[in-house]
Amino acid sequence: MRCYQRTIPAPADLGLDVIRIPEGEQLVLDVRLESVMEGVLVSGTAAAPVVGECARCLDPLADRLEVKLTELFAYPDTATEASTDPDEVSRVIDDRVDLEALVRDAVLLALPLVPLCRDNCPGLCPECGGKRAELGAQHHHEKMDSRWAALKRFSGGERRQ
Description:
The chain has 161 residues and is an alpha+beta fold. The chain has one domain. Helices cover 15% and strands 33% of the residues. It has 4 helices and 6 strands. The protein has helices spanning 79-83, 100-110, 132-135, 152-155, and strands at residues 2-9, 19-20, 26-36, 39-53, 60-74, 90-91.
């Protein structure tokens, strides 16, 4: 068994449209590699800061993400390698394990698809685009059914000639 801690710069495309790990930010890997019968078992964590915007109110948000990592890398010429497809189980290649796909998959799966600045974020007003949290509970817009719009001229003092 061996333990490693590495800090690497995050790649450019590590995230989703509204939340991501900024390119170049410090991605901290703390992993343990254990030799098991069929290969190398990698376990540990990956941690990095994330930035994005609230999906409801569009306010910027910042947080820290920590994900758990667990993956078996199969040795060449083992029953695991022989009985699985190449994309099912990772492989030990030239006595090395490549953690890039493991870390990328774990981070992308842990990022929220709809990040929120807080759980009860009211979002934006669909009429004026103002933030509902700042507009208050009394905020509303007069809406008239377009089918009744022609009658408005009779109620507003307009006279038809």
